[in-house]
């Protein structure tokens, strides 16, 4: 994390812990890896290979959405006090702009809105040449932990 910019995170991000949470999940099955956390973003990658392809040899739109929602969900939960709240997805959409046939898809999630009961995240996915392949918006509900209040 950069030191020259103030962080938005409630808790200090830990890449090792984030990737460990992905073990034995759809994220692990698709090869998703969290690679970087900045002061106001989360970045991760997903391979463009047989695990993520649709029948025409392109990254499946659903795989793009899984990457986008993973990044936004991790960010949302880092933004709140997890002893008091947790965040769950309410709505996700995606516009698939360019097919990806090889390499990796890199996603970057940034917060658009943080309210008392919801958050909205913007996630951009790029191919290895830096071309935008998908844009996604994720709405997260901020839910009180039972018995925390």
Automatic annotation (TrEMBL):
This is Hotdog fold thioesterase. It comes from the Bacteria. Belongs to the thioesterase PaaI family. InterPro entries: HotDog_dom_sf, PAAI_dom, Thioestr_dom. Transmembrane segments: none annotated. CDD domains: PaaI_thioesterase. Keywords: Hydrolase. Residues 56-134 form the Thioesterase domain.
């Amino acid at each position: 994390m950069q030191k020259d910019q103030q962080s938005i995170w409630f808790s200090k991000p830990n890449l090792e812990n984030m990737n460990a949470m992905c073990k034995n999940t759809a994220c692990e099955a698709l090869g998703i890896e969290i690679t970087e956390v900045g002061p106001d973003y989360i970045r991760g990658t997903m391979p463009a290979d047989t695990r993520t392809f649709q029948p025409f040899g392109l990254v499946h739109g659903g795989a793009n959405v899984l990457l986008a929602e993973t990044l936004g969900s991790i960010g949302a939960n880092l933004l709140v006090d997890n002893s008091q709240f947790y965040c769950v997805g309410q709505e996700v959409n995606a516009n698939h702009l360019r097919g990806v046939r090889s390499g990796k898809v890199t996603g970057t999630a940034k917060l658009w809105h943080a309210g008392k009961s919801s958050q909205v995240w913007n996630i951009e996915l790029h191919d290895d040449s830096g071309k935008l392949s998908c844009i996604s918006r994720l709405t997260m509900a901020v839910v009180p932990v039972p018995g925390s209040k």
